[in-house]
Amino acid sequence: MSTDISPDQKPGYRGLANVPLALEPLNRKDFTSDQEVRWCPGCGDYAILAAFQGLMPELGITRENTVIISGIGCSSRFPYYVDSYGMHSIHGRAPAIATGVASSRPDLGVWVVTGDGDALSIGGNHLIHAMRRNVNMTIMLFNNRIYGLTKGQYSPTSEIGKVTKSSPMGSLDTPFNPVSLALGAEAAFVARTIDSDRQHLTAVLKAAASRRGTKLIEIYQNCPIFNDGAFDAIKGPEADEAVIKLEHGQPITFGTQGSRGVVIRPDGSLDIAEVAEVGIENVLVHDAHRQDPGLAFQLSRLTDAGRLLRTPIGVFRDVERPAYDDLAREQLNLARGDESSDRDGALQELLFGKDTWTVR
């Protein structure tokens, strides 16, 4: 999978430009805490944690400059298991707290760990506004399509008809597609990966770390207790027939030896066709850097929310946008009248301008 990182560039440099890099080589043990990892046997969270701890030494960022903010849920235990700074915060509010951290401390690499219930239900507004603002943080959204910590209720990503403790006759809710939601919120970097594909998961995390702004990564994550096998269609022997791997600059093909491809219909919508019939030259070439998110949104809609028979994974969108916290600091410097500003005393002007009064 291409990450568009030049060979002489550290993966963490662009995304975390103000973060000091470690002077000595790091290893996975440096990011492993002394806490007992307490997830259910077989939980996909173990694989995600291992991939994260394996990637961090490659980025070269010290533990002291790494912060992990989580909300509530099984995934939100993540900060306990990484030897860095972190906070197990409030249900759904991790992006809001991370916004404060990123805005006040440009020298920190900020990661948000959340689940489909935490992020998309009570935390929905915080998530979409963090992406809209483009705050410099990487959001890992663990999607197991169920509420695991509270013992198996249907979640905002559960498929229609899902029978659970809270929907004994089947869920009636239309599920969120997190990638579609992120693209609709104008997120600059949007990706999807799978817990069991270590190579792909690591590549996506590395690509996200090299970018500045908000990065949303949906990670399909199996819950062996309350929703086991939810992603079997894209993990089993028939996975090649269901998984559509997106690579920037490459034709979007899948199936046995790339026998099928994504094409654009005359009406502008996307469809699946046999490559032998339409020709490889007519297969859509993926452009993750396209400014208009419309085509990426259409790709996200190929996902079957029920059986996942067609599931694109990879980086859907990766464009340059100014980061909110960078702009806020520039504005603050301007208001303070720093030496770099051409408006000395601007802060005093705001404090004692025409819109102030004295109370006697």
Looking at this protein, list some descriptive labels.
360 residues, alpha/beta, 8-stranded mixed β-sheet, 3-stranded antiparallel β-sheet, 11 helices, 27% helix, disordered N terminus
In short:
This protein has 360 residues and is α/β, with parallel strands linked by helices. Helix content is 27%, strand content 17%.
Tell me about this structure:
With 360 residues, the chain is an alpha/beta fold. It has 11 helices and 11 strands. The chain has helices at 45-59, 78-81, 94-104, 116-122, 124-133, 178-184, 198-209, 275-278, 294-300, 324-336, 346-351; strands at residues 66-70, 85-88, 109-115, 137-143, 189-194, 214-220, 243-246, 253-254, 260-264, 270-274, 311-318. The strands form 2 sheets. An 8-stranded mixed sheet has the order 2-1-3-4-6-5-11-7, sandwiched between helices. Strands 8-9-10 form a 3-stranded antiparallel sheet. Helix 1 crosses helix 7 (198-209). The protein is globular.
Strand order of the largest sheet: 2-1-3-4-6-5-11-7
Query: By helix and strand content, what is the structural category?
Result: alpha/beta
Shape: globular
Radius of gyration: 22 Å
**N-to-C SSE string, H for helix and E for strand:** HEHEHEHHEHEHEEEEEHHEHH
Roughly what percent helix? 25-40%
**Total number of strands:** 11
Q: Helical region count?
A: 11
Low-confidence stretches: 2-14
Separation, N- and C-terminal Cα atoms:
67 Å
Query: On the 0-100 scale, what is the average pLDDT?
Result: 90
Strand content bin:
15-25%
Note the main sheet: 8 strands, mixed
